[in-house]
Amino acid sequence: MTAESDKERLVDGILALADKLFRELLPTVPRDLLSLDITMPQMKILVILYVTGPRRMSDVASELDVTLPTATSLVERLVEKRYVERETNPDDRRVVLCHLSEAGEQVIKHIWQSAGKRSRELLQAMDVSKLELFAEALQAMHETALVERPMAARS
Asked: Which residue segment(s) compose the domain that 8 sits in?
């Protein structure tokens, strides 16, 4: 086996483990949030706005890889549900800025906190030597992510 195939095998194994961990953490997401009356693309918009902050409507469309009218329609439904608010730029009314409303912020924050709570429980159950290795690996991955960040995220 070559070093490259060993590396590929390790990457595949890590991703498989991450998938198993995600499936372990998923049931911790509160049932009321899973029963929200929103579609997956709408949930993606909430997450995008939570992670990146306010975004132009055109940026939302680009990040979802949909047309501007499709993104506008998705956001409109979230506005109707009071999860998202839109503002137009007074200097250029063509620019529409979307951001989470307080209700939208609370919905996503609740999901984040639920997953974080379960992650904390799992980490607390690990011994210190494994926690140190895990922290080192996460730090290295974070540093790589900062260097390898897509161009759109750098601006």
From this structure: 3-124
pTM of the entire predicted model:
0.70
Note whether 92 and 141 are same-domain residues: no
CA distances, 24 to each of 48, 55, 72, 112 (Å): 23, 32, 34, 15
Q: Label residue 86 left, alpha or beta by phi (over 0 means left) and psi (-120 to 50 means alpha).
A: beta
End-to-end, the C-alpha distance of the chain in Å comes to 41
pLDDT band at 116 (very low <50, low <70, confident <90, very high): confident
pLDDT tens for 59-69 read 999 999 999 99
Structure tokens belonging to residue 97: 């800025």
The dihedral through the CA atoms of 7, 8, 12, 18 has a sign that is: positive
